[in-house]
Q: What sequence folds into this?
């Protein structure tokens, strides 16, 4: 019986680790499908809704209930969101691509014409979102050009039915179970 010989992929035979090209990094990691969420709040200074789109959302812990997401250090929306008492993570549905685009854009009235209601914690729940998760910022961890936000869940529920908005290889799509 012969034992198969392991082969190396992505290796030129040398025992060195090459520098990682940022565009190649983005292209390779883009092969990992992610869901898309909108993080929303009421700006405590203006009383107006604010938000941003995120595709780096994940559950962290059941006890205590924690979630996390990453935000660019250059985000102009994040300072307004983190100043709020409560954040709401809205799990976006496959038909909410335009909502995602609006919340991903810089500046402007992101909520103009978007229907929403207040969550029990007082943050915007977007009409059509699959689920909402009220939370408060627990910790922020610097991580390169982003900040990892860990948030404590204070309430959550299903909202609408349908498929999720999925981000894969630089494009949006859907998933059917």
A:
């Amino acid at each position: 019986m012969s034992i198969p010989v392991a082969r190396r992929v992505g290796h030129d035979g040398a025992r060195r680790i090459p520098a990682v090209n940022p565009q190649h990094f983005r292209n390779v990691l883009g092969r990992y499908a992610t869901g898309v969420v909108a993080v929303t709040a009421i700006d405590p200074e203006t009383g107006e809704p604010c938000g941003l789109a995120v595709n780096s959302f994940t559950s962290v812990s059941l006890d205590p209930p924690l979630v996390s997401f990453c935000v660019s250090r250059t985000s102009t929306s994040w300072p307004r969101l983190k100043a709020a008492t409560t954040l709401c993570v809205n799990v976006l549905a496959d038909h909410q691509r335009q909502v995602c685009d609006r919340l991903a854009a810089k500046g402007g009235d992101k909520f103009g014409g978007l229907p929403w209601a207040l969550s029990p914690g007082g943050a915007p729940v977007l009409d059509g979102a699959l689920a909402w998760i009220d939370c408060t910022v627990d910790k922020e961890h610097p991580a390169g050009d982003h900040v990892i936000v860990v948030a404590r869940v204070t309430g959550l529920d299903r909202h609408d039915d349908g498929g999720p908005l999925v981000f894969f290889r630089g494009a949006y799509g859907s998933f059917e179970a």
Q: What stands out?
A: The two ends are 42 Å apart (CA to CA). The mean pLDDT is 91. Residues 93 and 156 are 16 Å apart (CA to CA). Helices lie at 22-29, 78-82, 97-104.
